[in-house]
Amino acid sequence: MVSWYQTIREMDAKAYEELLIYMSKKTYPEDATKNNKRRIREKAESFVISDGVLMHKGKKGQTQRVLRQHEVSAVVTSMHA
């Protein structure tokens, strides 16, 4: 049986939005410094967007859905219902 932890990764809302916008539009937040831009680009290499959802690419080719912190409790609750 696959646990929820194996299929879902958690990320804070700001980082999630930065990655999603960068990957879909190739733009950075207006207040991003040179270092922030580099960090976003490097981090984006480990993610893909599938049907508008941010997914983390694992080393063995598996993907994990990325949830914002406020989504985690609802998902955990539904998986244990």
List keywords for this structure.
four-stranded mixed beta sheet; alpha+beta; disordered N terminus; 81 residues; single chain; 4 helices
In short:
The chain has four helices and four strands. The protein is α+β, with helices and mostly antiparallel strands.
Low confidence ranges: 1-6
The total strand number stands at: 4
Order of helices and strands: HEHHEEEH
Which range does the strand content fall in? Answer: 15-25%
Structural class: alpha+beta
Number of helices: 4
- Indicate how many domains the architecture comprises: 1
Biggest sheet: strands side by side, in what order? 1-4-3-2
Q: Helical proportion?
A: 40-55%
Please tell me the overall pLDDT: 82
Global outline: globular
Q: Compute the gyration radius: what is it? A: 14 Å
How is the main sheet built? 4 strands, mixed
Distance between the termini: 16 Å
SSE blueprint:
Layout: H1 4-7, E1 8-11, H2 13-25, H3 34-44, E2 47-50, E3 53-57, E4 63-68, H4 69-79
Helix pairs in contact: 2-3
Notes on the structure:
By secondary structure, the chain is of the alpha+beta class. The protein is 48% helix and 23% strand. The protein has one domain (4-79). It contains four helices and four strands, in the order αβααβββα. It has a four-stranded mixed beta sheet. Helix 2 (13-25) packs across helix 3 (34-44). The longest helix is centred in the first third of the chain and has 13 residues, at 13-25.
